[in-house]
């Protein structure tokens, strides 16, 4: 998980999107999804993935079955991060109110 | 001092996460149902922006190219002039042969070969968009339909229309991964061989032919049609020692990343492109 504040995560994602548009290179735009998900901004990350899927369309050929590849990828990443957090890291510290 | 039980905290977090996941999946289903109208809406907004971005990138490129030395520019200018002169002669030759070809076919009773076509500007091309696709600024309103063939100009065909929106259209290039077509490998317009070509992405295609087949770099790959429809050119041939097949690698006749305008040929009826499923 990225140790960025909420604002910095948004700024990093916006920079990736702007550079992706400026350099006309879609992997940079897709990097914004990764930054948002790793920065624990799951809803925004999945939302961006959904927008990219609408813009780029479904992949042709056998991968067409995925239909929403970026969104599924983002959901899978978010799910695996959350599950690995429970399995790999100790989250049993107590909080004091 | 009050503490939260770790199990309770974990349960609450997990529940929140899975509720969120469920909501997202629900949104996904709803968006899936309205995907085409949403894509149409997106590109009707994005197409003008993409055009503006392309022109600003070109201006930026012009600005940086002004820093090149005079000597480099002069030598490049001379080289381009020489290439243009050579291409002009080839074009005159080509036009002459083309008109002769059309006239001969019309004398033989096939006059209806001038398929109606629509000019369209390319608003997004690889690597701006993935899957080897193009977005055009003309759609159903201009008369474009699904399965229409897309030419880069002349006989060089690059793809077929896969989705049509009112003001935009999406084109799947022949080199798109997972796409397969029946085509003809031809050498100097004489020897031909039917092959199946598969897209690999990045404007490249691949096919296999029997090991004894004579294939040279530069050989053309066409669709079987009355008028020539060039789709690719052989760029490499790979022959294994023990294999009974040789692999041929091809590139689209025109690089999709430099396409600014294309011509959309109306498909006469049904599937004009011989797709292999």
Residue stretches of chain B low in confidence (pLDDT < 50, at least 5 long) are none
What are the low-pLDDT stretches of chain A, counting only 5+ consecutive residues below 50? none
Described by strand count, sense and barrel closure, the largest sheet of chain A is: none
Structural class of chain A: mainly alpha
Number of helical runs of chain B?
3
Strand content of chain A: under 5%
Oligomer description: heterodimer
Beta percentage of chain B is 25-35%
Return the average pLDDT of chain A rounded to an integer. Answer: 82
Q: Topology, please?
A:
The complex is a heterodimer of chains A (97) and B (277).
Chain A lengths: L5 H17 L3 H13 L3 H15 L12 H20 L9
Helix pairs in contact in A: 1-2, 2-3, 2-4, 3-4
Chain B lengths: L5 H28 L1 H31 L4 H38 L9 E8 L8 E4 L12 E5 L2 E9 L4 E5 L6 E8 L3 E11 L2 E7 L9 E4 L5 E11 L5 E8 L8 E5 L12
Antiparallel strand pairs in B: 1-2, 1-12, 2-5, 3-4, 3-12, 4-5, 6-7, 6-9, 7-8, 8-11, 9-10, 10-11
Description:
Chain A has helices spanning 6-22, 26-38, 42-56, 69-88. Chain A is mainly alpha-helical and 97 residues long. Chain B has 277 residues and is α+β, with helices and mostly antiparallel strands. Chain B has 3 helices and 12 strands, in the order αααββββββββββββ. The longest helix of chain B is centred in the first third of the chain and has 38 residues, at 70-107. At the A-B interface, helix 3 and helix 4 of A face helix 1 and helix 2 of B.
Write a brief structural summary.
With 97 residues, chain A is an all-alpha fold. Chain A has four helices and no strands. Chain A is 67% helix and 0% strand.
Please supply descriptive tags for the structure shown above.
heterodimer, A: 97 residues, mainly alpha, 4 helices, flat, B: 277 residues, alpha+beta, 6-stranded antiparallel beta barrel, 6-stranded antiparallel β-barrel, 12 strands, 35% helix
